[in-house]
Amino acid sequence: MTAETLLTxxxxxxxxxxxxxxxxxxxxxxxxxxxxxxxxxxxxxxxxGVKGGLKTIVTRSIPRASVFAREPVRITNxxxxxxxxxxxxxxxxxxxxxxxxxxxxxxxxxxxGIIAGLGMITMASLVLALIFRLRNPVLRHIxxxxxxxxxAVTLLPVLTGYLAYSHAVLPYTAMLALHILSIELLLVVAxxxxxxxxxxxxxxxxxxxxxxxYRGIES
Amino acid sequence: MSDNKTLGExxxxxxxxRRGFMKFCAATASLMALPPAMIPAIAETLQNARRPSVxxxxxxxxTGCTESLTRSHAPTVESLIFDYISLDYHHxxxxxxGEAAEQAREAAMKxxxxxxxxxVDGSIPQRDGGVYSTIAxxxxxxxLQEVAKGAAAIVSVGTCxxxxxxxxxxxxxxxxxxxxxxxxxxPIVNIPGCPPIPVAITGVLAQYLTLGKLPEMDHLGRPxxxxxxxxxxxxxxxxxYERGQFAETFDDEGAKKGWCLFKLGCKGPxxxxxxxxxxxxxxxxxxxxxxxxxxxxxEPDFWDAGGFYKALSxxxxxxxxxxxxxxxxxxxxGLAAGAVNRYHKQVAQAAHEPLKxxxxxxxxxx
Lengths: 219, 366
Fold this sequence. Notes:
Number of strands of chain B: 9
Strand content of chain A: under 5%
Distance between the termini of chain A: 55 Å
CATH architecture of the largest domain in chain B: 3-Layer(aba) Sandwich
Structural class of chain B: alpha/beta
Shape of chain A: globular
Strand content of chain B: 5-15%
Order of helices and strands of chain A: HHHHHHHHHHH
Strand order of the largest sheet of chain B: 2-1-3-7-9
Number of strands of chain A: 0
Oligomer: heterodimer
Structural class of chain A: mainly alpha
Number of domains of chain B: 3
Largest interface: A-B, 46 and 50 residues
Helix content of chain A: over 70%
Order of helices and strands of chain B: HHHEHHEHEEEEHEHEHEHHHHHHH
Number of helices of chain A: 11
Helix content of chain B: 25-40%
């Protein structure tokens, strides 16, 4: 198999299978969560559950001052990773073309050099996150294979993407094929690891916020 | 037929000036990335060389490769490469036809057995005994096997001969194959392209004449001097790619400003060829310069790589179908699981026996 045929396979049937498994797994898990349902509210609420739910989806993105003060570096690193990853994902020209092809939506791209820089920052934050995980005895103790797997499949697309962009290692054809395959690995693994949080974060925040909002307390 | 004159004598007879000849030698040296010190050596060798016999076999092809070679550079000195070699058999270019043509081939083979250069353009059909393409009642497969036996080396010109090309495109009805899939015991150099750049063909022939060996090749058997570099890396539109400025259609503002053609399906990033540097039509332009993305014609199976107008970052299968099917299947599975869960809940509720206070007995402490 040449790099050319590998790339054609990665862009073709391999991607179809990967996105199929991703959608199947994610939808199944979300329905699984939603079908758990919740008990009817028998008492009259003091506030609005809906308002509380929507508010919490947003406010939980901002750390509480007291929590932040305890581990500012680790929390900031989490932001750096998520923001960096999303910027690279959403504002690189070829990525926008990919999204446009699937959804019809399109927006202006950021220059490649900026994306490359953001990619490096994103990778550095992932490495730092791993160091934090390994150096903290409690965190290390509660970490499972699942955590390390999620870390690895998140790092690989950023790493291979950076290498493909820089034309540094392997011919571009092979590196692009590996980049696409690494994304497919992420797609396949995501529904069965903690990476489901890319969607389920909204559900859990909504639930917490709804409960609190209904009772008229802060969440 | 080969004669006994040296190339120098032959060229002088043809009225080629020394200046023109040296220019050709210098161009050859630079094209093949040889040091300038090699130019006199090339000139010397070419001057005194006997014209080697070349047999050119055309199989499942469109003659585009020959057109490229003969038309686009005539009448420059490069076209005189035909004077440096003795082209003893070539369907399109030879005067003889029918049996006389085949006799010329056989005679050249006999006279130069083990020494002639075999050039092939076109793929070779293998299915059903190779009946899908025959010349003078002989299948391409038989002819290739026969002529290859006495060849010193083989040059596969064009993507069809090098990788199977268009005839090999899915579903490959004739079982088309590349030369290298059939002949495995001879040195083979691939000069792919649809068609290849003329100087890539002449450059390889010139190197073979002067150094007596095939050039340094990449993992796909292509001469590195011409196929060692990426179109994208050498593209004059690369700065627009870096800035994230792309033409969205062939006639929008971006296209008029000469922005990057990546989104219009340009395969420059995955294509290795000299188009962006050697260019076409005597260095006038190349596809990207004229506003169309690279189609990646010098790469294997370029025809089946998902369409010329789909960007490299875009899925080429049926992603929408996969997403719809997966979502529907997941919804069905999810609803079924939910129904099962509710059923279990109902069964559990029905089986529930309330416990009254009177039924409880206190365990006496001892």
